[in-house]
Amino acid sequence: MSTLYDQSRTAREESSIPQEKLSTRDVQSLTYSFSETTNTLPLTNCKEIVKMHTPVSSLSGFVTILVVQIIFGIVFGAFSEYGKEVLPPKDGEVLPTNLGSYPHFQDIHVMIFIGFGFLMTFLKKYGYSATGFNLLVASLMVQWALIARGCFEMEEGKIRITLGGMVGADIASATVLISMGALLGRTTPIQLLLMGLCEIAVFAANEYFQLEYMKIADVGGSITVHAFGAYFGLAVSFILRSKKSDLTTTNNLEGPSYTSDVFAMIGTIFLWIFWPSFNSALVSGADQERAIINTYLGLAAATVVTFVLSVLVSHEHKLDMVHVKNSTLAGGVAVGSVCNLLIHPYGAVLIGSLAGLISVLGYRYLSPGMLNKLRLADTCGVHNLHGMPAVLSAVFSAIFAAAASTTEYGDSLYTIFPAMRSNLTHIGGEHHDEPIPFGGYGRSAAQQAGYQLLGILSTVAIAIVGGLLTGVVLRSPSVRAIPRDKQHDDEDSWEVPAP
Question: In Gene Ontology terms, what is one molecular function of this protein (predicted)?
């Protein structure tokens, strides 16, 4: 198809009509003559080729993005206000501050904009799009997450903007970037925008449902962020999957080069270094310190297991960069739901080791099988890095919840597992106005374990259904798609310097 398009473009250039001023009649004339001279495609297909590659169709997508940004600005103007702790104090009142969370906010920012962005630069000719679209999507989704999540916590009809809310919005944007990894190289900016708008809306509702009604423990977001983002993205990818006939066509850009792999490794290192901040940002005190320690140990153990197992299962018994770039991070995901629990150092090492194991095996055996049997493409392997380790984390959260008691945790047990409280008024005299959880308060440890498992099952189900519906929207004829021969190529959206 690229050869045919080149012929069409040459004919159009020779017509001396500027591309941006082509009228409908010009396009019809050119495509008709093109079909006569090539005698290879029907007229309607030739029209579709010209339409699919004109700058006008790309320009309309970016205009839509601008319109969305304007709408966000209007919503912020009409329905948002600074949180009380951000406003100047009055009459000598002392207000709480979130400034202590700013270092974590910075670290998560680095993960979102550098870590995720560079991790996706492994495709040999998709570095502009990986880093650029990551910046664009994250910038939009942080704003949308502030609005969507804020709708569930409005005060006097206003969304209160605080630094704590910004941290939560940053974490929420990671779900879209995870899903983007499953679709990397196969979507346009407008498709990413539409997916992000749908995903954050569903994510915010599911997060509120899981944390406020199910009362699950998920400090590091393994359930609500990693599992949700992975299976939402895979569901969208399933709807956008290629035809069986296209699988025989090889796109030589759908793979790494030596240089692109080195750049991707930069993303891995940034994510590895700052992952403890991601997992510990939403807690404080001893809980935060445990979260940092457990995350680090989980990452270290996953890294060692990844290197060893990569040599064992690779074709030539050499290290595979795919494993090193991704599976070394699986430990951070796997300890997310339990990072603030008393899992003990050996528990963190065990969980990290298992995460590295299942991640490497997933990249080596499961991903190729998903592509060959289901035609389900997972460009970055988010199922192996985020999906399966998140499920592992949820299983361990149920195990440790079942063993939790006041003997070990003291009163902090009721901070970690709020639904296990028998009487709200006994906890530090706090005023609690959160929703009543399912089944009421006074859960036993075994019941809390059951809700942890129910949390991951319901999250995966919601993510898959939401992803399938979103995929239908993205596959709509009114939404521009990238033809297969133009996928994984920056030249579809960027001005690329000549080699």
Answer: ammonium channel activity
